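Researcher: Next sequence.
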Amino acid sequence: MMQQLSELDRLPPREPLDGGALALRLDHTLLRPDARVLDIELLCEEALEWNVRAVCVQPRHIRRVVNRLESSGVRPCSVIGFPHGATYASVRVQEALAALDDGAEELDMVIPLGALRDREYRVVESEIRAVVEAAQGTALVKVILETACLDAEEIQLACRLSEAAGAAFVKTSTGYGTRGASVADVKLMRRVVGDRLGVKASGGIRDLATARLMLEAGASRLGTSSTVAILRACTA
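Model: Next structure:
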């Protein structure tokens, strides 16, 4: 069953956004493995100040983020199977369940990339579906494709498998690949999923010009660690 999305999550903006509207398209992100508690607390303070859509962190930080964002409307988001997507399927599900128990409202899971490239499409779909079913009614699932590792045909297949498995979004990148999002990736992903799924661009989005390019290409959500700089530029 497909996860239900608001128009804000599902569709790219129809026109350039002001600072407040742009903030609602941003996932304020800190995924460095060496991030400290102070870094996470600052991340949350910035998210609250700018009223962004979500805060995206490693699973070990989710409970702290949930407590800090309580009743704010900013969504706590945990990555799953990050950054390689190469763990056991059962471990990915348990990681998702633990993040949900800690209060995560969104899960950004890395696709089983090797299985996709080996054309094990049933495996790919079933592993995505297992996380979607674990999150059903509780959290949105975004599937990270790591587009830098895929050709155009594989990107299209990954989008179709994600949709068939019931995911809410397809997402370009972990930020740990050989490159981040590209306009071509986003356009292709949007063309495949139409207006049925959200498209999240992430990786390498460090300034307002790049953010706008990704939204114009069809992204409905952006993941960035440069949130404050982008929004300051937008409101200057």
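Model: Strands lie at 26-30, 54-57, 75-80, 106-110, 140-144, 169-171, 198-202, 221-224. The chain has one domain: 7-231.
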